[in-house]
Amino acid sequence: MNISYFIAKRILSVKRGSFSRFIAGLAITATTLSVMVMIIALSFANGFDKVISNKVFSFWGHVRVQEGFAANQGTTEDFPVQENKEAEKYLRSIPQVQFVEKYATKSAILKFETNIESVLLKGVDRDFNFTRMQDFLQQGKWLAFPDSGYSMQIDISQYTADKLEVKVGDQLLVYFFQSDGTKKARKLTVAGFFKTGLEEYDKNFALCDINLIRRLNDWAPDEIAGYELYLKDYRMADSVSAMAYKQLPQGWYSKSIKQIYPNIFDWLNLQQQVRSILIGIMIIIAAVNLITCLIIMVLERVRMTGTLKALGSTDWTIQKIFLYNTGFIALSGILLGTILGIGICIMQQQTGFIKLNEESYFISTAAVDINWIQVLIVDALAFIVCIATLIIPTLLVRKVNPVTAIQFR
């Protein structure tokens, strides 16, 4: 028979008026809250990172490949290059790559009645996958491509539409300035409005037909600005970019979108650091509460400890009694915290009851992504840390003198 376990179980069944019972309840509550907060923090941070990353990648891809990229950071108009079939074939052969798309850019001034806005037009062709951007479409539709010539439609952001006071179906006068100082104008019909929630995108970009940019820049039909790679796993962007760079023809460069727009991803990394600090604090709180609980239990059971020692029990046998007690408390808190944390996350997924300021956080509703492996790691880490720290206060048992303890009131 396991004497330590038997006595621990009897202690846990003591009447509710016991002070140690009250302290145990507080310890379970603190552990529950700590584990719950850790799971919620991780799930919300995962969801936030995933949604923001997808917004960035959906518009510009995960990796951008250009010729002469070192001299052009991809934030203004791009220089024309001829399509490189050899490079394109290689890029499509990379296992992690899902799509390879061509693009070009052109600065323009949009005018509607007396309102004027400047944008950078991103030209795409009929192979562009608008499906991944469907959630961004606010009104209208994505531009359509004719069988010949170029599309006379344009998709602008909701921000630009509000500034121009334009509606879907209206015609804009679009001015394009050439390198020699002259300008060209085209009338384009607004096909739809999009909203990514990313200020840097919504204020600066619009979508049009790549053939329009070719025509305005006097480019050849096979000239583009570069290629965009869309990966199966966004976390592979840096490694795929580095791998592609080594295999590309001389003069061609590849950069992940994280390198092109580092400010957005630096902000996301800062959120991850805050998350790590929060998790560390919660683990410390849980451990401190359990240590406090155990010390009170040991002090309240001094007479029992002295009696057991007088009867011949070893220090380790008595220590295990208190470890079983606090182990049960830790497990109870971890289990309850896990249930509550996952429950709140699922409720947020279903109802979206937590709202955010989109201008500050780029999303209007807090996103949640529950990673079950992370949940298991949190539970295991919390339990290991708690048990490891609980061994220290049980050493008080070794200090108890049986004669003095039995006389203790």
Based on the model shown, name its key terms.
409 residues, alpha+beta, 2 domains, six-stranded mixed β-barrel, two-stranded antiparallel sheet, 14 helices
Describe the 3D structure:
This protein has 409 residues and is an alpha+beta fold. α2 packs across α11, α2 runs antiparallel to α13 (372-394) and α11 (315-351) runs antiparallel to α13 (372-394). The chain has helices at residues 3-12, 19-60, 85-93, 158-164, 199-202, 210-217, 237-247, 257-260, 262-300, 302-310, 315-351, 358-361, 372-394, 402-406; strands spanning 63-67, 81-82, 97-112, 115-124, 137-140, 153-157, 171-177, 183-194, 205-209, 223-224, 226-231, 252-256. It has 14 helices and twelve strands. β3 and β4 form a beta hairpin.
Concise overview:
The protein has 409 residues and is α+β, with helices and mostly antiparallel strands.
Number of domains: 2
Compute the gyration radius: what is it? Answer: 32 Å
How far do the termini sit from each other? 30 Å
Fraction in beta strands: 15-25%
Average pLDDT: 84
Shape: elongated
The largest pleated sheet is described as: 6 strands, mixed, barrel
Structural class: alpha+beta
Tally of alpha and pi helices: 14
Relative helix content: 40-55%
Low-confidence stretches: none
Enumerate the strands of the largest sheet in spatial order, edge to edge or round the barrel. Answer: 3-4-9-6-8-7
> What's the SSE pattern?
HHEEHEEEEHEEHEHEEHEHHHHHHH
